[in-house]
């Protein structure tokens, strides 16, 4: 039976006591951070809706990765606020706590367990979820096995389940890592430059995968490859010198003269 995905999202958010009733799942307001006097994030306001797939673009050094570092607790801002739902103040939580309440992050370089099979990698990712850790030490339940199979299908690696992860192509490793994040069923997924180094075919598959996640997860994708962004984009945010320069559909931001001047026109 297929359920409405937004409905699934609301149920999950309710489990976590996350209030997304006003729409956004992520609120960033008047955020600032400087590194040795250099303003990497400058009065940034950024909102992501529950279930939305958002692309973030911007030149090198615009502050895209720094924004993700702040959301995930890796970097502490000088001022401003970052809320998950309406009530959870992320600036008061540690990096592991933020991961635990449902914010997953994919770094650029894939970090899979090379000497384990694809299946085992997904199994280990599930074990990182404390709620299932004790049961996993015994044996996988039917539901857990089903979830691994489901994720294997989503990431297109069902036929590679028994292969060692180290033998996968670069693109397949990236999908496996996204799959490992999905095992934790995050409400918000942050993905930094997922298609760097991928073939065109791998990029198309990645686009399908990310598009398939919306509704069930909120996804923020940072990417430089404009063809890729165009292929998945719903709403696009252009960051420039640590704040939002433009936001809208791909067509809107591409035709925005300020964006053309500082970014796309280069
Ligand atoms: N921990 C840090 N210490 C010092 N400077 C930093 C730190 N993190 C980021 N910066 C600086 O902040 C600015 C923004 O960097 P950031 O990595 O967020 O950019 P980006 O938009 O992700 O760029 P790219 O597209 O190249 O990945 C850069 O000038 C960078 O050198
Ligand atoms: Mg970056």
Verbal overview:
With 266 residues, the chain is of the alpha/beta class. The chain has one domain (5-264): Rossmann fold (3-Layer(aba) Sandwich), CATH 3.40.50. The protein has eleven helices and ten strands. The protein has helices spanning 5-15, 64-71, 95-100, 118-127, 130-138, 142-154, 170-183, 200-213, 226-232, 250-254, 257-264; strands spanning 24-35, 38-49, 53-57, 79-84, 88-89, 103-106, 188-192, 218-222, 235-240, 243-248. Strands 6-7-8-3-9-10 form a six-stranded mixed β-sheet, with helices on both faces. Strands 2-1-4-5 form a four-stranded antiparallel β-sheet, covered by helices on one side. β1 and β2 (38-49) form a beta hairpin. α4 packs parallel to α7 (170-183). The site of magnesium ion (MG) has 2 residues, from α2. Adenosine-5'-triphosphate is lined by residues 35, 40, 58, 60-66.
């Amino acid at each position: 039976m297929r359920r409405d995905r937004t409905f699934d999202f609301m149920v999950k958010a309710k489990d976590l006591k996350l209030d997304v009733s006003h729409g956004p799942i992520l609120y960033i307001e008047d955020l600032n951070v400087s590194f040795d006097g250099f303003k990497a994030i400058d009065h940034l306001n950024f909102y992501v809706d529950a279930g939305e797939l958002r692309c973030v673009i911007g030149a090198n050094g615009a502050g895209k990765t720094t924004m993700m570092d702040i959301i995930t607790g890796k970097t502490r801002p000088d001022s401003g606020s970052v809320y998950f739902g309406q009530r959870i103040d992320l600036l008061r939580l540690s990096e592991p706590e933020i991961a635990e309440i449902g914010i997953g992050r994919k770094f650029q370089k894939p970090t899979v367990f090379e000497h384990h099979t694809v299946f085992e990698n997904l199994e280990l990712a599930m074990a990182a979820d404390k709620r299932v850790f004790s049961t996993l030490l015994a044996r996988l339940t039917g539901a857990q096995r089903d979830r691994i199979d489901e994720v294997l299908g989503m990431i297109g690696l069902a036929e590679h389940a028994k292969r060692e992860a180290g033998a996968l192509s670069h693109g397949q490793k990236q999908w496996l890592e996204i799959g490992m994040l999905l095992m934790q069923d995050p409400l918000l997924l942050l993905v930094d430059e997922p298609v760097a180094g991928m073939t065109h075919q791998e990029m198309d598959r990645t686009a399908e995968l990310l598009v398939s996640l919306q509704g069930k997860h909120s996804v923020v994708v940072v990417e430089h490859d404009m063809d890729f962004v165009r292929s998945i984009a719903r709403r696009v945010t252009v960051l420039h010198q640590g704040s939002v320069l433009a936001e809208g559909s791909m067509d809107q931001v591409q035709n925005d003269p300020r964006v053309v001047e500082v970014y796309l026109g280069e």
